[in-house]
Design brief:
The protein contains 3 helices and 6 strands, in the order ααββββαββ. The protein is an alpha+beta fold and 165 residues long. Among the domains are: 39 residues, no CATH class; 74 residues, Arylsulfatase, C-terminal domain, CATH 3.30.1120. A hairpin with a 2-residue loop joins strand 2 and strand 3. The termini are far apart.
Length: 165
């Protein structure tokens, strides 16, 4: 399970398919027992400042292993035996590090170039990230605000002009 699964799982609860560019997995079949095992064969992370020449954080998870890049070196953890990631096993498992590093680097090449993320308003943040041309983004019609408040709650204001002053 990973945070990236939230969107796909929410779509599954709504009975809809997630957008094409969603990397997450619908976890409902795993939670109900319809599917067994790991939802992801591998999970990758890459955080990068817009002015950086290298990622500020990079990592990969595969089976019980988590590979984390610290500056110019990789640290390897067995997250089943060491969930707090206190014991770096990279020196004892160089072949696993090399294999995972190679797969991380291959995955990294699939990401688009860094750029400014356009914001068309609403609740979208402005800032930096992997830019997607606006014309290629197609939000499903079911993405929107809830029309009814949760049970037992009053409706909340929808726009800034509706907020009592």
């Amino acid at each position: 399970m990973a945070a990236i699964d939230l969107y796909a799982t929410t779509a599954g609860v709504a009975g809809k398919e997630p957008p094409e560019r969603c990397d997450g997995v619908n976890l409902i079949p795993y939670l109900t027992g319809e599917k067994q095992g790991d939802a992801h064969k591998e999970i990758y992370w890459c955080q990068m400042s817009p002015k950086a020449t290298r990622p500020s954080f990079k990592a990969m998870r595969w089976k019980q292993w988590r590979l984390v890049g610290y500056r110019n070196e990789w640290h390897l953890f067995d997250i089943q035996a060491d969930p707090r990631e206190e014991h770096n096993l990279a020196a004892a498992n160089p072949e696993i590090v090399q294999d995972m590093e190679k797969r991380w680097e291959a995955w990294r090449t699939t990401l688009g170039p860094m750029g400014t993320v356009n914001s068309s308003g609403g609740n979208q943040p402005k800032g930096y990230g992997w830019a997607t041309p606006e014309q290629s983004v197609s939000w499903p019609s079911w993405v929107g605000l809830r029309t009814e408040p949760p049970l037992g709650r009053k409706a909340s204001p929808r726009t800034r002009s509706e907020i009592p002053r």
